[in-house]
Amino acid sequence: MKQNNWGRAIRNLRNQRGSAVIEFIGVGLILLVPLFYISIVVATIQSAGIATQNAARAAARVFVESDNVSQAIQSAKHQAQHALANFGMGDYEYDIEYLCETDPCFYSESAIEITVKVKVPLPLAPPILGLEKITTVEVIGSAVYQVPRF
Question: Three-state DSSP class for 145?
Answer without folding.
Answer: strand
